[in-house]
Amino acid sequence: MNDVIHNPILAGFNPDPSICRIGDDYYLATSTFEWYPGVQIHHSRDLANWELVTRPLSRASQLDMRGNPDSCGIWAPCLSYADGLFWLVYTDMKRYEGNFKDGHNYLVTAPHIEGPWSDPVYLNSSGFDPSLFHDSDGRKWLINLQWDYRQREGRDRFGGIVLQEYDPEQRRLVGAITTIFTGTELKLTEGPHLYRRDGWYYLIVAEGGTGYQHAVTMARSKTLSGPYQLHPQTPLLTASHDPDNPLQRAGHADLVDSPEGYSYLVHLCGRPLPGTRLSPLGRETAIQRMEWGADGWPRLADGGNTPALTVAVSGVTQRPPVQEEHYEFETDTLPAAFQWLRTPYPERLFSLTERPGFLRLFGRESVGSWFEQALVARRQDSIYCSAETTLEFEPEDIQQFAGLIAYYNRFKFHYLAVTLNDTGDKVLSVISCLDDWPNGNLDLADASVRLDPGTTIRLGLDIHARELRFRYAQGGEEWQSIGPTLDAGLLSDEGSGRAHGYFTGTFLGMAAHDISGRGTPADFQAFCYRRAPLSETR
Q: Are the C-beta atoms of 480 and 462 separated by less than 8 Å?
């Protein structure tokens, strides 16, 4: 499509966008939560077509998330460029349920976007969503939400946006801590970013929570520490009043100017399945064109404050995603689309060299372990898609299983697994956890199929909006269905049986579990992901 950007620009789980431009190059960082390596950074020259270029938090000295609960880990990175360096600040959230939160904020730098990225500098733990602002006088300032653990009538625990100077020579925060903004009646004020333009300091924050009341609020001040006056159109962006908009949950935004002087707002969004409020693709990233008015305030170029599905940008041709991605595991590097969970020691989970041409997973802890789980997967980024893999695996007892998984977290997954039954037969079974929080009880579909020992098996799944079906084939045989139609909508932020929501998205991939502790290997020869309606996946 020419001269139009179709949202989202980063489909699938890519929340909390932070954007910066260096010359003609745009770089956009998004949250990765418990998925390793930490932080996704994409590159573009035209704001429409993006390529993943790095995940900078890739070693133990930078990030170790073993033990981090679901939807903890890397929250809301902020990427900036100054003094010949890329600066990346981020939260490693260790606990977020209840009155208390344990989130530690860090800074890493690199001379080039691909690295090498430094070891982290510890900043503070007063709250999450840190952002580094480089003022025109060369001074640097950290802003973040300050968490207030106290429950008080009429107040939430989002205690305001605080400001403190960062000294790059001392590599630490210095000076007084100042609260510069306490938010609006929307509450839940977070995700701050600061800018300087025409003698004003502009502050953008996210408000309303990251669900369907999410919003972008802007304020400005002549002085860095405030007071900040609200934009005459508050909120600046939200879909809370427009339930039929395909882009919901609009909020958590950042601004960037093009070389031509146009301004754009990147923001978080979600696309619920039709007729539902379930978003298995997770929170994604969209973009809006902004125009600055004579009063010195930016507004959406299309007017109003509702996110647009398409954005007019002259000279842009947005490429559609490829229909099929096929991986043969023929190199010693994991394909960039894939991630694993929490640990900085992937050699404990998998190898691409022990058996050349295969991804070997070593069965580790149980499905949903917060410490060491052998699960390698990629984002689901289309509600019509399929995934296939080829597996060689010889389990020795019921505690060993491996196969193809659609995974959201420890309480929400569908797993087509090879294991043994009580009589020692090798079988293929469907195992689901149907959002049974806090018990985590499994649903074991009465659909086990006996397999021939030593036979290679192909495993597949097809997703059509809210429906998920598994299939299999032994050797060179034809595909056969197995198990019932499963609820793909369950694997979403909103499909939650607990008091608090989640913040990630569905991943499709390969898994091996050996809760006996023997580390039994499973070999995967290939993985294929297709974006297509169900009728076209066979």
A: no
Question: CA–CA separation, 415 vs 430, rounded Å?
Answer: 6
With tokens 């260790």, the residue in question is: 94
For the segment 246-268, the average pLDDT, to the nearest whole number, is: 97
**Cα 224 to Cα 254: distance, rounded to the nearest angstrom:** 18
Residues 6+ away with beta carbon under 8 Å from 313: 3, 4, 5, 46, 47, 48, 289
Query: Who's near 174: CB < 8 A, 6+ residues apart?
Result: 164, 165, 166, 167
3-state DSSP assignment of residue 329: coil
- Helix extents (H) in 256-361: none
Taking only the tens place, the pLDDT of each residue in 75-84 is 999 999 999 9
Per DSSP, the residues of 22-83 read: ETTEEEEEE--BTEESB-EEEEESSSS--EEEE--B-STTT---TTPPTT-EEEEEEEEEET
Q: What is the pLDDT of residue 498?
A: 57
DSSP state of 537: -
Beta strands in 328-477 (DSSP E): 340-341, 350-351, 359-362, 374-379, 384-392, 400-409, 412-420, 426-434, 442-444, 449-450, 457-464, 467-474
Give the pLDDT confidence of 359-376 residue by residue, as tens digits: 999 999 999 999 999 999
The rounded distance, in Å, linking the Cα atoms of 140 and 121 is: 14
Helix (H, G, I), strand (E, B) or coil at 423: coil
Q: How far apart are the C-alpha atoms of 519 and 538, rounded to whole Å?
A: 34
Q: In terms of Cα–Cα distance, which of 77, 72, 10, 12 is closest to 39?
A: 77
Contact in structure between 412 and 490 (CB atoms under 8 Å): yes
372 has catalytic annotation: yes
Catalytic residue among 165, 325, 372, 394: 372
Q: What is the band of 156 on the pLDDT scale with cuts at 50, 70, 90? A: confident
As to burial, measured by CB atoms within 10 angstroms (0-12 exposed, 13-18 middle, 19+ buried), residue 429 is buried
pLDDT at 350 over 70: yes
CA 39 to chain centre: 8
Torsional sign, CA 351, 357, 363, 366: positive
Dist CA 526 CA 535 (whole Å) = 23
Whether the full predicted model's pTM is greater than 0.85, yes or no, is: yes
Domains of the chain in sequence order:
2-317 (2.115.10.20), 324-536 (2.60.120.200)
> Which tokens belong to 180?
């510069």
Question: pLDDT digit string (tens) for 513-528?
Answer: 999 999 999 999 999 9
Note the pLDDT tens digit of each residue in 392-412. 999 999 999 999 999 999 999
